[in-house]
Protein 1
Amino acid sequence: MTSSTTDAPRPDVEPAAGATTNGGGPLGVVKRAFGMESASVLVATVALILVIGAIHPDFLDPRQLRDVLQQSVYVAILAAGVAFLLAMREIDLSVGAIFGLTLICSAILMRDGWNPWVAVVAGVVLGALLGLANALIVQVFRIPAIVATLATLSMFRGLSLALSNGQQVVGLPLDHAFFDIFGGRVLGIPVSVLVLVVVAIVLTFVLRTTPFGYRIRSIGSNPDAAAFSGISVARVRIQALMLMGGLAGLAGMLGLAFFGSGDPNIGSGFELLAIAAAVIGGTQLRGGSATVVGAMLGAVLLSVVTSGLVYFNIPVNWSSFATGAVILIAVGIDSLLRRRREARAAAAGL
Amino acid sequence: MFALEAQHVRKTYGGVTALADAGLRVRPGTVHALLGENGAGKSTLVKIITGAVRPDAGVLRLEGSDVSFSDTADAARHGVAVVSQELSLFPDLDVLSNMFPMREPRRGPFVDRRRMAALARPILDQLGLRVSLKDRVGDLSLAQRQLLEVAKALVTDPRVLILDEPTSALDSKTAEVLLDILRVLRDRQVAVVFVSHILEEVMALCDEVTILRDGRTVLDAAPLAGLTIPKIVESMLGERHAELAETRPEATVDLSGTVGAPDGSGVLRVQDVSVEDRLEGVSLTAAPGEVVGMAGVAGAGHQVVLELVAGLRQPSSGQVLLPDGSPAPKGLRAAIARGVALVTGDRRRLGLMLDKPIWDNAGQVRSVALARDGLLVRKGALRRRAGEHAGRVNLRTSSLDKSAGLLSGGNQQKVVLMKWLQTQPSVLLLDDPTRGVDIGAKAEMHGLVRSVAEAGAVVLLCSTDLDELATLCDRVFVLHHGRVCAELAGETLRQHEILAAMNTGSVATA
Ligand SMILES: Nc1ncnc2c1ncn2[C@@H]1O[C@H](COP(=O)(O)OP(=O)(O)OP(=O)(O)O)[C@@H](O)[C@H]1O
Ligand SMILES: [Mg+2]
């Protein structure tokens, strides 16, 4: 993008002050690749890995790091969708339940003899439809999404349990190509991680260069002004919640490929992790902006915390507390870094 | 002895100098005008005096002793109240709660709402603000919110009262009420600072004047008696002093081709339209090339006509035909897609994304809402187009990356106009489009509006500024209680006639 040219309509009146803020250099390249907002969460994640690694060098084993990444994929995909929603001042608490329900449904279909590919496509479509259901509830009853999806969270989770009778869904055709490909690795990298990268690229592109992405941020920035400019808030909300559902479905399919069975309780609590990851990644709760890569890195950070803690002999009953404390520290550092940067931008008068 | 004294105040935001060396000295028992063009630093100086912004340098004295306020609440405790330009009300709270932010009278640990009401009611009545104390502030009109902001300052019983463009959203009658109140305060020895771009008001009200230009005081506490409007304008603009003709504005740029030419007859028709409780049998037409004004006191129905054309309301009888000959669609979105543009004076609430850069705001309708640039929105293209339009409306900013919220009030208004001009509208609806715009920029914007009309668009204007209606419009329809009571044009189109018709509902036959 044209970051170096600054139009100054009246240069005779005031000097162009913004010309130097988007500088180049190697740091500039990194910043542009990850987006300014996600630079600090990347720093925080790497720092945390190095600290754990310094105390327990085993943690730096590539296989260990690969597993950490692999485990973060599901929450990372959900977090990317949540970032979109937060950017337009919406939220979806049912994402973990959609993840679980799509996974269970596809598992049941496969067990009952459907072609796995068809079952997988059905799973993703189901996710989008569940998102549509959320949007319609919000629309018809005119209730906030946080309330609507709190209800559907229970309903979707309840459906998973009802359809599976509360049992693991097993007996899937594990030798089918679907499980081979999406549960496997290419060049040592889990395929699900590759999918995550593709999703990151596509969603970033959508957010930054399509009218849909601009509309999302417009609405989050000032909903009244957006509506006054001819943006249909209702339509964008439907699209965003469907996107969210579809992403949850996609995550569900990756989970199914990896686990090879359907646990009706899988994904419980993912909604909070996904929201946390999005916020850690630099998406603001007041709306108006989002970073997909940041949200995904936030999920990785959370995954590093949970995996890393295993290396420290923390009594089981304290592990939850320790997880929270580490998250707080990581987020605190991240937030301080961000403040410094914003103060600098404000001083530049932008 | 001055009630309030600020000297050698400096403030820079990064590379942008908002105040270079500004001062203000106000005597008790006077109304002091603080003038300057958009971006001259008036609001910044006001914010510094009231403790909302910290200066880089400068001294502040209140009745002779040095002070520095930590925030506006601190200033209020010392008897300095401010009515800020950008309204600072809480939209989700009711009127009463908004009048006592953080200093509500208490009875024990509880808020004493009865006492609050007893204090608030007389002030609201005095201002002629007829709202219930329980009304949600977000539901009030811009004018009502502006008056409420004044009421909120008055309730603190200040020694120094600073008003930053308090009348910009008020119609002339309501503004007159406010000016009378300020005269009463003057008699009570309050020091009043009055910021405004409406120089007629200033001439009628003020005793002394201070003028800022590019962040410097160029005229310091001069008695107004020896000054005329042209002299004031001259020192506001300095060398930039352009010929500000008192006559009709001419088209300044050739916009032909940038305005959507409608297919049908090209004439906008409102035919015998009624809206329950608001309009009764209103008919009017507006042809391409014309600027048609609509006037009326608040609630007279002129704004309802704009809403009808914009699809925000449906008529209960009669019909509204857009220039292409078909009825006005349901809903603003559809109207916009058909070439209607709605420039609002309520810029912060309905016009702008304050936290987004100028170029992003400028492309919001054309590239984002209408997706006219195709499936991809290119930042480079948005910036380029924003740059072109910024040049046209003479936007004063250091960079197109500046957040819209950091621009001075008048420049924010120009960004709103920019974003609609980009859509190449065939119908341009203007609702107080030059609210808070300085005299030079206003002339530029009027020239622009004429250019849009000349290029073949239909232009409908509602304004609280009678001068604007009288000079910019070819014809003005005056509404009274939901009916058209007069159509003024040519010789009869003068401020005096408009005002008379607005208030009496009939044309003076003098
Ligand atoms: N927070 C800020 N950050 C950067 N620049 C700012 C900030 N606040 C004001 N400015 C700049 O300082 C200058 C003076 O602005 P100010 O709001 O004081 O003008 P004003 O005289 O009140 O104009 P208007 O008549 O349009 O209200 C403008 O160039 C404005 O863009
Ligand atoms: Mg101002």
Protein 2
Amino acid sequence: MFRVNEIRKDFPVLSQSVHGKPLIYLDNAATTQKPLKVIEAMNEYYREYNSNIHRGVHKLSQLSTTAYENARSVVKEYISASSTEEIIFTRGATEAINLVAATLGKSLNEGDEVIISHMEHHANIVPWQMIRQEKGIILKVIPINDDGEIIFEEYEKLISSKTKVVSIVHISNTLGTINPIEQIISKAKEFNALTLIDASQSIHHSHIDVKKLDCDFLVFSGHKIYAPTGIGVLYGKKKILDKLPPYQTGGDMIRSVTFEKTLFNDLPYKFEAGTPNIAGAIGLAEALNYIRSIGLDAIIDYEKELLNYATEKLSEITELRIIGTAKSKAAVVSFVLRDIHPHDIGTMVDMDGVAIRTGHHCTEPLMRRFNVPATSRASFSFYNTTDEINVLHNSLIKVINMFK
Amino acid sequence: MHELKELYQQVILDHNKNPRNFGPLPQYTNYAAGHNPLCGDQVDVYAVVEDGIIKELKFSGSGCAISKASASIMTTLVVGKSVEEAKTLFDEFHRIVTADFDDKVETLELGKMAVFCGVREFPARVKCASLAWHTMVSALESSQNNEVTDNNLN
Ligand SMILES: Cc1ncc(COP(=O)(O)O)c(C=O)c1O
């Protein structure tokens, strides 16, 4: 038995009411709530040892440097990287992808190809378009089927010796589809293409082992895995990161500066310009430890239960159509309700205390693929319950009645 | 639930279901396109203006119930009015959906627009209600193709 009622107590936000109803937070794919442990770890930093890192010889600076570097080790362990040199702290997944596209892009040439999929978040589309504009590379898009699954044969047709990068989302934030990244990566290797995995939605819903995956880059954001906003991770293989030019310059990324010449620091500092989000990194490490304390396997099993229950329950509503029906899915349910606009749905269920996301979820090409302007999306976390899904269900029935 | 009933009054639901003056005008003197990138709402406003009088006004596009009903009701209010009068109505409408309207129904037009009072309890939806109006004003101010986006909306 998953002790969800105990776990809910770890999240202060969850015990409140909105519009006079208990909050039911089903917008976890946008951002997750923070457990007390994470909030306290960050508080402790600010209250007790706030100071800049890698700078001072004084006591507090040593404490904060140790905490920041310890956070890097926690991330390294969590994703099974080979060394902490491969863990670069960024502001989030978006900045991490931009970092890779911008630095790797410098060595790409006209006619080189980058492959993405039709279900990418804008954060994994636009940075490559910028390189296309600058360098004349070709951006190729793997199509998806009506269930929202990558069509692997089409990927095999797109990839060639011209392919330099394959940049793919692991789990779609809009559809919940779990992509077969192992096969995608090994196919890319046959053509010596580099691989980037956007693990924003998967780092807390599946076991990620970058050594086993053998991907070249992997990115995620802290705030989607119970950590604060403004902190994220770029994992990169050392031998590849070593070859990339710096992204931003100044601060920790520098070894020595004269007006004639600047020497850059070693990994991972080479990519961490300026004072980083120290409290954020500390919060991220605490969040990863928290996930580990609950147990990823238990989380995966429980969220699967929630997904199955939600899919069944919402499918009882005949006017409701689920967008994203992949065989392999995470706990995300996107749907349209007759011709009722998602914004009207979002406002109405909010009055019942239910927070869902409505809109295009930063995946406009995907909306066009399914011929809808927007969807409503309920995305679940291990602190959600089947009772909450019942409330969503009843609230949606009310919406339908209102629009009769 | 009370606020929700205020927001989704019967009149609004009716205009959403059966929008008046819906569809493009084959011939028009003024046009503008409005777009709210945040939610994907899109509205095109077509007008025939002669001697400063709005002879015809239609809209097309897609959006939520609030934005569609607002566009529909707007078209019923401004046809036959002068461009200046239409702009004054817009100002009044803006007052209704933001805060400082004291529920006094001074004119018939205001009466019809008063159904949008409920919007002010939902700040996230003010843009939905005002998109069509902004787009109309933009159309009236220029006969060229005009783009209204979120940036100049509120
Ligand atoms: C799949 C995916 N990639 C990238 C991002 C961007 O994350 P962030 O905004 O935290 O940088 C998101 C967040 O919505 C996402 O879901």
